[in-house]
Amino acid sequence: MQDVFNFNAGPSALPKSVLEKAQAELTNFNGTGMSVMELSHRSKDFEAVHEEAIALLKELLAIPDSYKVLFLQGGASLQFAMVPLQFLKPGKIGNYLLTGSWSEKALKEGKLLGETAVGASTKETQYRSIPALDAITYNENDAYVHLTSNNTIFGTQWKEFPTVTHAPLIADMSSDILSRKIEIEKFGMIYAGAQKNLGPAGVTIVIIREDLLEEEVDHVPTLLRYRTHSETNSLYHTPPTFSIYMLNQVLQWVKDQGGIDAIERKNEEKAKLIYDAIDESDGFYRGHAEKESRSLMNITFNLPSEEENKRFLAKAKELGFVGLNGHRSVGGCRASTYNAVPLEACVALSDYMKNYRR
Ligand code: PMP
């Protein structure tokens, strides 16, 4: 089997060394004579994995002690509902900053559960950019301000986050967590599905400031309360043990790469290769995102016609490039250059783009 260049948008590439380690340990984890999937989630062996994953995440992202790290299920999509269930009380407003389809989906759940407002939106310009910080509208009674740090479908990314002091800033970081340095203190809560930069699907990470766990939640079903998970160290019920095991390996890998600083530099280098191929093409490749809002994780572009898009994608497939199709809702092309996508894959794609154009 030929090696492929995996540019999938999620689930997406995992570090090869992590997969090989998981393979080597699959039938005998840590001398237990069984796989990690077959252990009790309350066993010492699993507990070590679980604790190590929390500690590594805290270390890599420099998460202050005033925050809790939780491992939940239900994907980022369940967080769209859990956030308003928990925080959107009568008389309060869930303030959503719209930068793409995922923020719209978060807003949709908020609307089901309470009063909402749109503090900013770039929908009118096809979500090609991120709103200017001084164009955001806040309300005195905001329960929270919600944003999507990286827009997986449109290929834009917040470069600088608003400073919000009257309410917690809550961010869906599903598609760029662990890809760059983040000032955690700016946020009341951060959540992310694992299946891009963190590991396989199945576990959802929540980083929540402790004071937000004090909210009155008597009306919320037990499993949907953050407090339930914080009080039980995410072991209220059976967690997705294999996903957490893989997450732990991926975090170890990030640390071995030199941590977030090194990963961020590499991500910039990788994305530049592809954006340069776009910018130096005399308009043959047209990037969807405005330059100052460009994502380092999802690079979206179009060729001069739908026909050319198809030909470009078909030929790419023959050459071993996987996952370059744009999201089914917008079409075009998209290269997702998450942490585990090697530099060589981006060099190969950049070369292919140049050759194809010629
Ligand atoms: N938010 C963002 C930014 C995403 O990219 C995705 C999935 N691609 C989701 C939310 C939904 O995540 P999940 O499938 O884990 O519910």
TrEMBL record:
Per the record, residues carrying N6-(pyridoxal phosphate)lysine are 196
Q: What class of enzyme is it?
A: transferase
Q: Which pathway features in its UniProt record?
A: Amino-acid biosynthesis; L-serine biosynthesis; L-serine from 3-phospho-D-glycerate: step 2/3
Cofactor binding comment, as recorded = Binds 1 pyridoxal phosphate per subunit.
User: Which keywords describe this protein according to UniProt?
Assistant: Amino-acid biosynthesis, Aminotransferase, Cytoplasm, Pyridoxal phosphate, Serine biosynthesis, Transferase
Tree of life domain: Bacteria
Q: Which cofactor does it need?
A: pyridoxal 5'-phosphate
Q: Which GO terms describe its cellular component?
A: cytoplasm
| Listed InterPro entries | Aminotrans_V_dom (IPR000192), Aminotrans_V_PyrdxlP_BS (IPR020578), Pser_aminoTfrase (IPR022278), PyrdxlP-dep_Trfase (IPR015424), PyrdxlP-dep_Trfase_major (IPR015421), PyrdxlP-dep_Trfase_small (IPR015422)
Q: What Gene Ontology molecular-function terms does this entry list? A: O-phospho-L-serine:2-oxoglutarate aminotransferase activity; pyridoxal phosphate binding
Subcellular localization, as worded in the UniProt entry: Cytoplasm
In terms of Pfam families, this protein maps to: Aminotran_5
Catalytic activity reported: 4-(phosphooxy)-L-threonine + 2-oxoglutarate = (R)-3-hydroxy-2-oxo-4-phosphooxybutanoate + L-glutamate; O-phospho-L-serine + 2-oxoglutarate = 3-phosphooxypyruvate + L-glutamate
For L-glutamate, which residues are the binding ones? 42
Q: Name one GO biological process term.
A: L-serine biosynthetic process
Q: Which residues form the Aminotransferase class V domain?
A: 4-341
Quote the record's binding site residues for pyridoxal 5'-phosphate. 76-77, 102, 152, 172, 195
Q: What is its EC number?
A: 2.6.1.52
Q: Which NCBIfam families match?
A: PRK05355.1 (NF003764), serC_1 (TIGR01364)
Record's function text: Catalyzes the reversible conversion of 3-phosphohydroxypyruvate to phosphoserine and of 3-hydroxy-2-oxo-4-phosphonooxybutanoate to phosphohydroxythreonine.
* Quaternary structure (record): Homodimer.
Q: Which protein family is it in?
A: Belongs to the class-V pyridoxal-phosphate-dependent aminotransferase family. SerC subfamily.
This protein is called what?
Answer: Phosphoserine aminotransferase
This chain's source organism reads: Halalkalibacter oceani
